[in-house]
Automatic annotation (TrEMBL):
Residues 4-234 form the ABC transporter domain. PANTHER family: ABC TRANSPORTER ATP-BINDING PROTEIN (PTHR42711), ABC TRANSPORTER ATP-BINDING PROTEIN NATA (PTHR42711:SF5). Keywords: ATP-binding, Nucleotide-binding, Transport. The lineage of its organism: Bacteria, Bacillati, Bacillota, Bacilli, Bacillales. It comes from Sporosarcina contaminans. It holds the Pfam family ABC_tran. Belongs to the ABC transporter superfamily. This is ABC transporter ATP-binding protein. One of its GO terms (molecular function) is ATP binding. It comes from the Bacteria.
Length: 239
């Protein structure tokens, strides 16, 4: 089942043409890594999928809805089935971690167990701390835990592991892959860590000069003769 379908997507900020014709699709249950150098347009692409940014040309279908044709109400409905963690946030100043998780559980009407989430994300020592007072990495972990709490069909993560220590990075990837196996949820993420892409992603989209220069399975790329995804990236992308 197709979860996302993108055809000839184009997006400019004024004179700066960032996306020049992206073709992309994500099927149910896939984990897809979007890679490319700083400023390539990865976040812009994810924000469009998340219905947070308008685009200039092309078709973008998410969970069978063509974004351009949706009313505000339909967009709100669609957003309930998508979860996203974009760049780390500074809100929720006055709530403790456990209160935040309970609040979002109620908001999403989620059947997930908050105590299990606290355990899975190693949040026990931080449960009574104010979100505002957590370190950057732990804020990110809490934001990720909240994203999973909605049991989304589509999860969009912008550099989810940046700033996490190796144990937390490992914990997050274990959670993502388990979630994906358990629920069949689709995950689209950006990262600059090519080892993670190689280990955990089914498919890779390389954004370069505004187009999807490569969109292939991780295995397909490796079987083309590259030693690693890092090797592939360095060969394909110039500074
Ligand atoms: N709101 C905005 N207004 C104007 N230009 C923007 C805006 N957001 C992004 N850009 C520009 O669009 C281009 C792509 O930015 P984007 O953040 O999508 O890239 P990225 O691949 O996610 O980069 P990075 O890896 O550094 O996070 C950059 O040239 C950036 O300056």
């Amino acid at each position: 089942m197709e979860i996302v379908h993108v055809n000839n997507l184009q997006k400019a900020y004024g004179e700066n043409i960032v996306l020049r014709g992206i073709n992309f699709n994500a099927n149910a249950g896939e984990i897809i890594g979007v890679i490319g150098k700083n400023g390539a347009g990865k976040s812009t692409f994810l924000e469009i999928l998340m219905t947070l940014k308008p685009y200039d040309e092309g078709d973008v279908k998410v969970l069978s809805s063509e974004l351009r044709t949706l009313s505000t109400q339909q967009i709100e409905h669609l957003r309930k089935n998508i979860s996203a963690v974009l760049q780390p946030t500074q809100f929720y100043k006055t709530l403790k971690v456990v209160e935040l998780l309970k609040l979002f559980k109620a908001y999403y009407n989620s059947s997930m167990d908050v105590e299990q989430i606290i355990k899975d994300f190693k949040l026990e020592p931080h449960r009574k701390k104010y979100f505002d007072k957590l370190s950057g990495g732990w804020k990110q972990i809490v934001s990720l835990a909240i994203a999973f709490l909605s049991e989304p069909k589509l999860l969009i993560l912008d550099e989810p592991t940046t700033g996490l220590d190796p144990h937390m990075r490992n914990m997050l990837w274990t959670y993502i892959t388990d979630y994906n196996k358990r629920t069949g949820g689709t995950v689209i993420l950006t990262t600059h860590n090519m080892d993670e892409v190689e280990l955990y992603c089914d498919k890779v989209m390389l954004l370069n000069e505004g187009i999807n220069e490569v969109f292939d399975s991780t295995e397909g790329i490796l079987s083309a003769g590259y030693k690693s995804i890092n090797d592939f990236y360095l060969s394909k992308v110039s500074i």
